[in-house]
Design brief:
Number of domains: 2
Number of helices: 14
Family: Belongs to the histidine acid phosphatase family.
CATH architecture of the largest domain: 3-Layer(aba) Sandwich
Shape: globular
Radius of gyration: 22 Å
Protein name: Lysophosphatidic acid phosphatase type 6
Mean pLDDT: 90
Catalytic activity: 1-(9Z-octadecenoyl)-sn-glycero-3-phosphate + H2O = 1-(9Z-octadecenoyl)-sn-glycerol + phosphate; a phosphate monoester + H2O = an alcohol + phosphate
Largest sheet: 7 strands, mixed
Low-confidence stretches: 1-15, 417-422
CATH class of the largest domain: Alpha Beta
Number of strands: 9
Structural class: alpha/beta
EC number: 3.1.3.2
Order of helices and strands: HEEHHEHEHHHHHHHEHEEEEHH
InterPro entries: Acid_Pase_AS, His_Pase_clade-2, His_PPase_superfam, Histidine_acid_phosphatase
């Protein structure tokens, strides 16, 4: 169970962070008067949020056994180059919490013998390739990280789900070519207090906003409803079967990335299924409602924000800062995260995609800048004049959605308190 810091400590930290933002804002006004020479920028910190690699579907479609795709256990073979020993602890360094998700997946066997939600060989290779790309960026092109894993340089955190832990292993194997100077510790949290995905279990308000009834209501929206009926009919799925575009996309995306023989109708409508899945998710998230996005990823944005502020604060002891922060998350994390940053492209976040946040300092002016990239492409976040964004502007944009622990808990229980009071 997570133990939040005492309110007094959090209040002091909030005040300090506010003062830091004010201090940053003044000197950085200078950036608008001259273009930034990127050759004079020094990389100080990198944060990478990534989705796990390709996996088996979370739930099979209700089709005849003969029509279902076969998930052969050979798909789970571990490529030798991805082998890398690691240890999992809770956030305080204690024993690994139990994972209710993995227990649930093992209760859902797929045709062929593979369980639901398992990382596959393809997924491991995807993550290894992402690690190699990060190595090229931060070890070879720029001598920023040591060529071997060093726990004093790298902090690793993952949701406590086996496919994410294994995805992280593969990424680290690619990034450091299976070389390490110390133990690899992957930090996880209890499911009840996890912030690396929208936590419906922990947040009553979020659970109400994105309830099962709202997911069902999404499938009844004009356009979505007609398209869903058409796809289900072509696939021979009964109108009473609870299948929506999220479930359809989960299956078609998993089958396609593994080159498995999907149902012809599923393949034919793959593009439309993805778009309608995005429409469904946006309806559930109520994207125009800032509070819904805050409740989904506000606590995680607060973590990312604090990492930036600690890095630029000269009073922060070096032992409290890492050069690289890795966060193994999910598609349901990345979508609201991209929306909060104003860079969502209306496409479903693919397997092994990364959102990378680089912090730079100008060697002459000492100004701070953030550069954001998604899937390896530079982005222009909301509130920023260009891809290289002055830190104060970036923080202002983040602060609209970031939630401190105490504010998150207040918002999460607010609606429940009103209902109980009524």
């Amino acid at each position: 169970m997570r133990v939040w810091a005492p309110v007094g400590v959090l209040t002091s930290l909030t005040y300090c962070l506010h003062q830091r933002r004010v201090a940053l804002a003044e000197p950085q006004e200078a950036h608008s008067r001259h273009p930034v020479d990127r050759n004079l920028l020094e990389l100080k910190m990198v944060q990478v949020v990534f989705r796990h690699g390709a996996r088996s579907p979370l739930q099979p479609l209700p089709q005849e056994q003969s029509q279902q795709v076969e998930w052969n256990p050979q798909l789970l073979e571990v490529p030798p180059q991805t082998q890398f020993d690691y240890t999992v602890t809770n956030l305080a360094g204690g024993p690994k919490p139990c994972s209710p998700f993995d227990s649930r997946y093992h209760e859902t066997p797929l045709k062929g013998g593979v369980f639901a939600g398992q990382l596959t060989k393809v997924g491991m290779q995807q993550m290894f390739a992402l690690g190699e790309r990060l190595r090229k960026n931060y070890v070879e092109d720029i001598p920023f990280l040591s060529p071997t894993f060093n726990p004093l340089e790298v902090f690793v955190r993952s949701t406590n789900i086996y496919r994410n832990l294994e995805s992280t292993r593969c990424l680290l194997a690619g990034l450091f070519q299976r070389q390490k100077e110390g133990p690899i510790i992957i930090h996880t949290d209890e499911a009840s207090s996890e912030v690396l995905y929208p936590n419906y279990q922990n947040c009553w308000s979020l659970r109400q906003r994105t309830s099962r009834s709202r997911r069902q209501a999404a499938s009844l929206q004009p356009g979505i409803s007609e398209d869903l009926k058409k796809v289900k009919e072509r696939m021979g799925i009964g109108s009473s079967d609870e299948v929506d575009f999220l479930m359809l996309l989960d299956n078609v995306a998993a089958e396609q990335v593994h080159s498995l023989p999907s149902c012809p109708a599923l393949k034919r409508y793959a593009q439309m299924i993805e778009q309608r899945a995005v429409d469904t998710a946006l309806y559930m998230l109520q994207r125009e409602d800032r509070e819904s996005i805050q409740l989904a990823v506000g606590p995680f944005l607060h973590v990312l924000e604090n990492n930036l502020l600690r890095a630029v604060d000269p009073a922060t002891p070096p032992s409290k800062i890492r050069k690289l922060y890795l966060y193994a998350a999910h598609d349901v994390t990345l979508m609201p995260l991209l929306m909060a940053l104003g860079i969502f492209d209306h496409k479903w976040p693919p397997f092994a995609v990364d959102l990378t946040m680089e912090l730079y300092q100008h060697q002459e002016s000492k100004e701070w800048f953030v550069r954001l990239s998604y899937h390896g492409e530079e982005q222009v976040p909301k509130g920023c004049p260009e891809g290289l964004c002055p830190l104060d502007k970036f923080l202002n944009a983040m602060s609209a959605y970031a939630l401190s622990p105490e504010k998150y808990h207040r918002l999460c229980s607010q609606a429940q308190a009103i209902e109980l009071g009524g």
